Amino acid sequence: MSCEEQHLMPSEAIADGEFKEARMQMGGRVCWLIVTRQSGQVRAWLNICPHQGRALNYAPNQFLTDQQGRLICAAHGAVFEADEGQCVQGPCQGASLKAIEITEQDGQITSCAQP
Questions:
Q1: What percent of the chain has a predicted confidence (pLDDT) above 90?
Q2: Which residues pair with 8 in a beta bridge?
Q3: Which end of the chain is more exposed for a tag (fewer CB within 10 A), N or C?
Q4: Cβ–Cβ under 8 Å, residues 90 and 79
Q5: What pLDDT score was predicted for residue 26?
Q6: Could you count the other beta carbons within 10 Å of the beta carbon of residue 28?
Q7: How many C-beta atoms surround the C-beta of residue 39 within 10 A?
Q8: How far apart are CA 52 and CA 11, in angstroms?
Q9: DSSP class of residue 48?
Q10: How far apart are the first and last CA of the chain?
C-alpha cells in the first residue's frame, strides 16, 4: 500500500515535554494530531479522547498537563501518560489514545497517511 508523506512541523517547533497540535489528511479527511516529544523521542496520537470523542486541548495548541507531565483531557479530566498515551486516571481509565506513526528526519516531523 502506498502512502503520501505529510509534513507536520519542523523539529524545533516542539521541545521536550511539550504537546502541540498538527493537522493531517487521513482517508480523505482532515484529522488533528497531538504531537509530543518525551525524552527526545517524538510521538503522535489522534486528538480524540476515548471517553467521549472530544479533542483533548482547550484551545489551539493549549493542552493541560499535571506535575508529572501527563496529558489531561480538558473536557472531563482523563489523565494520559505521555509515553504510550494510556489513560491512567479518569473516566476512560485503561483505554489509550490512537497512536499515529511519525518520523523525525532532517529537521522535520512527518507522517505517512494511507489513502
A1: 87
A2: none
A3: N
A4: yes
A5: 86
A6: 7
A7: 8
A8: 31
A9: -
A10: 8
